[in-house]
## 1
Amino acid sequence: MLQIKDLKAKIDNKEILKGLNLEIKPGEVHAIMGPNGSGKSTLSNVLSGKKGYTVSGDVTYFNENLLELEIEERAHKGIFLAFQYPLEIPGVNTNIFLKTSLNAVKKANGEKELDAIEFLKLVKKKASELKFDENILSRQLNVGFSGGEKKKNEILQMSILNPKLSILDETDSGLDIDALKIVSDGVNASRSKESSFLIITHYQRLLEYIKPDFVHVLINGQIVKSGGSELALELENKGYESLS
Amino acid sequence: MDAREKEIEKLKDYKYGFSTDIENTRAPKGLNEEVIKFISNIKKEPKWMLDWRLKAFERLKQLKEPNWQKPKYPKIDYQGLYYYSAPKSMDDKPKSLDELDPKLLETYKKLGIPLQEQARLNGIAVDAVFDSVSVATTFKGELNKKGIIFCSMSEAIREHPELVKKYLGSVIPLTDHYFATLNSAVFTDGSFVYIPEGVRCPMELSTYFRINATETGQFERTLIIADKGSYVSYLEGCTAPMRDENQLHAANVELIALDDAEIKYSTVQNWYPGDKDGVGGIYNFVTKRGLCKGKNSKISWTQVETGSAITWKYPSCILKGDNSVGEFYSIAITNNHQKADTGTKMIHLGKNTKSKIISKGISAGFADNTYRGLVDIARNADNARNFTQCDSLLMGNKCGAHTVPYIKNKNSSSNIEHEATTSKISEEQLFYCNQRGLNQEEAVSLIVNGFCKEVLQQLPMEFAVEAQKLVGISLEGSVG
């Protein structure tokens, strides 16, 4: 579903990604690990289409040139980014935001939009599956949310939008162990033959809960080593130094 | 393109910009005693009304146009304007909607106010003012049963002179200021509402103002009286055709609430704002003032100002009765070259009076938006309270937002709070919304509607939906 070939990305004339190659097939879970400044967040930004980067290389997503699509078009086609720092939007009820988002995606795909009642039914079901406090939904989007609540809210959005490719950008950072478990359960519940995941993280900890099919080590804008889930453990013991 | 996109596409340009080709009766051009007599005569007014107008005109000659406001404008040629313009078919006033000129009905239909269906479907009583005259008032019969008077100002002058004489000019005196006095001399039509003691008006009352004729000023006058223990909610909407001249709109609105009465006055103002380069558009110089005359009375202003080249107005409350309450909720959106200098005055005279001001200013493009407000606590206004919150939202880096709060406090038992914020829509917020599938315009509309939420909530249901759409549309093309 996703083939990345020789991907380079520059921002303010500084090259961050320096020829990255990666292939993700439907249903696979890939983890990208790497030290600070290795280009992990840049990769998630470039894949979701954030402006401000000069990008070259080939990224093919379901036989389409992903780099030519607008941010929202990528979202319509099933790319979801769980933000490292989810944004606050004052005055906008979380429920309204979720409904607007879901219906925008449905509309773009020619599907029937949900009315308020259908939507509430869906969101209540998902929230209880993920053991979320429903009160969160009637609050203003991310305003006054704790770090954990913001991340849980991202996972709730992911499970409602049912994306084909979910990119989790350091979703585990700032989570206590209980929140980490809930978030991981949410991801695991969304795993299926059709949905793929790209999990970006510093630590092996998250990967104890979400077992990846592949682990890649990103250092200085390139993937220097790939392997199975055992690679994460190896890194935890030896550190990134051994690879650079 | 699906239906919704088409709809938005259609709305992108000012959708009320059409004009109706209709034969007009006009007063001679210019401002003089003869013209005032012409207006009074054509409206078959009693002599006291004409005398009142002439008194205002005398006063006007001594007044100077104010120029302390932030948005400046080129000198207005008052002698180059028509002060009265009415569709010819109104010369013999039609008795019912069925007798109305089909072209007029068509115009209101295009504006989304089908007068005939309106009467049956929406349960909102509408008074439609076209240029200088009121063309139709719906639901009159039903309101009459409750003793409610809802009619055009001209009719009220003829049919209910005792009420008009008593209250007209009692809140905005003849001598008030240049534009208010000009209005008193030449006002043409508008709405009159009287709610009798103890009556809760069973439906929203609404007036729809339309400027159609060219080189014409619109000077309507609205007077609403809520007698003891009564309640009324009143809505006002405005549009005008696209013209490359600036047209003057100087209305006066007076509200009077007696003991335990409540008036809720909502405005969605969408006069033609001028084109992208700032050519044309309405000068919206309006005086709106409410008097909480009785104890425990309440007046609440809600305004959504998205149109006009310049908006310059301060809907105000005089809190004279003990325990009376004044509220002002405002959204002012300025885009392209639009300018707004708007806010409120809360004059606390009675004891235990309370006021609340929530103002949301949004500027985009090259626009300039000023909140100017006065909280005035008089010596005898024991335990007066005020809460003011002014929030500004900027889009882009060529627009401006200003907050000018004046506070005069002569009583040490009062409690005054003022909060103000200025913020920008961030690229990160937009990216977040885009990533969730919203396009740029949907994202802006969502964020701005969130910003305005506290005010939009104050609008009656039917208007809130319209206003939300309008908020999104007014800002289209302002980002990205």
## 2
Amino acid sequence: MIKEIRVVNRKGLHARPATLFAETASKYSGEVKVSFESKTVNGKSLITLMSLAVPRDGEVTVTINGDEAEAVMSELSGVLGKNYD
Amino acid sequence: MTDSFILTGIAASPGTAIAPVLILRELELNLDSGGGHELATQLRRFAEARNIVREQIMKLREEASAQHEEWTIKIFDSHLYLASDPELLGSVENRINENGVRAEYALLLSRDEFALLLENSGSEMMVERAGDLRDVTNRLIAVLTGQKQEDLSELSGEVILAAHELSPLETAQLDTKFVKGIITETGGYSCHTAIMARSRGIPAVTGSRGILGLLESGLQVILDGDEGWVRGRPGEAELKTAREKLAEQLLMKEHLKAFRDKKTQSLDGTSVNIGSHLGRLSELDDALRFGAEGIGLFRTEFLFMESSGFPNEDVQFEAYREVLERMNPRPVIIRTMDIGGDKTLSYIDLPAEDNPFLGVRGIRYSLRNPEIFRVQLRALLRASAYGNLKIMFPMVSVPEELKEARNIVDDEAEKLRLGGVHISQDVEIGVMIEVPSAALLADELAEHVDFFSIGTNDLIQYTMAADRMNDEVAHLYQPLNPAVLRLIQMVTDASRKHGLWTGVCGEMAGDPEALPLLLGLGVRELSVGAPQIPAVRELISRLNLKNNNLKG
């Protein structure tokens, strides 16, 4: 399952939302990949997620393989779809 | 016992401190790089170290939680996650499996690999996160190599911390009850240590290269964060002076705390707006914490000086929007780029000039390079929708320059509106008065602007033709010389006549001797460094502006 999601947080995919994203993705046994500007990283790794340096309003592509992909996708969309100030 | 010595650095956070030094030693990273170790043992050591470090961090997180330190709690949350990050773990385990190296050496290599990844991401914030990654991996390496690290949360007496550099977390953890001062060998006025030290009121000297070689833990020092020096093994007379200064500062600090969150008002109820200067986005927290009623001078040069080419419109727009949004509805005065003089850029060829301060700088550069100027103006106008923006032009000498600059603003605004971009209708345009001709022609300039902002540092320098950094002529740099005051009065008179308002940015705005004069002349907006705000506000609260008398 593939979905494009816009990062709403004012500081982009920064420490707080990235930590929540990785934590949420890690609860899931299947694979979670995140792509931004031709780079693709492991969505469960805080370090590589942050290395994408996604700014506010950046569009990331999230790819989930495995069961329950839809439920996980909606949870991850929630993480990216809000501001964390 | 050897003699007293003095070392200088950057005055990063004001105040005096007298205490013994505590040196935070760097982790010893000269590790065994040999292979052939038993894989299972190394993997087990790595797993055990992770457990120990997770417990350490949990304990620190609990302490932060008990103190309601939201920012620190969030950092520890991400540290806990970093300590078990799957990509970091996988990378370390691969190194152990492939080369049979010791766990700590594998970790060191992986740490550097990932830190580089973050540092190269092109985002200032990710460079800070690389610091978090180092914090966590260093904890692991310390456990694996049996190195004891000073635990800043377990201090029991007053100290002045000295380190090569402090990580953001180390800085955040500092207990102000015991940490009376900070000395670092790296950094400058705007490094994270300096910013945190200022906002927490810890005196600090940064960028004091080589100082660790002269210090040892337990050595008594005096630190002067106002002037930027550290004295080791002070004599009795020096201690006495420092103690007097310290006592005075403590009294003042208590008294000023109450003025952070007040509105600025004189004794007879006249409102004044005290804004903060802003040189970098990271100083915004300081401005808010010290109760800035606006940004009086946002110097945009950092955007141009810290990149390898002219920052594009979107990059500039984001920076301006952030400041405007966070300060809204308070006013933010943004100065268009003041390149030239002593501020050059690596990626442009400024012609060599015999007198750069009398050469192409400020608006002169912008008007000669309209394609660059227009990018900045578009970014500013687009950002205007997000707050209370005022734009001002630096180094204007004659009305023609101002007219030309305004025409370009109007032209870009018109184009944006036609393109359907929402921009604020209320953007005020102002001119910086820093050249004597501009003060003399204030009457004419007034017809083209909404406000004046007097940049006193340059105005004094150009009026007196004296460089205050030149010791031989610095005595001629006289803020209160009648020549300077008459020029300022010409500006405030023109301002009153044309119904404009006048602000002052520069050291005079925070000078207790000059302030009553400036306010008496009709200045109602000031821009000072954020930490100065409470003191200036307190002073104004004792002034009677109608009679212009100082009541003490």
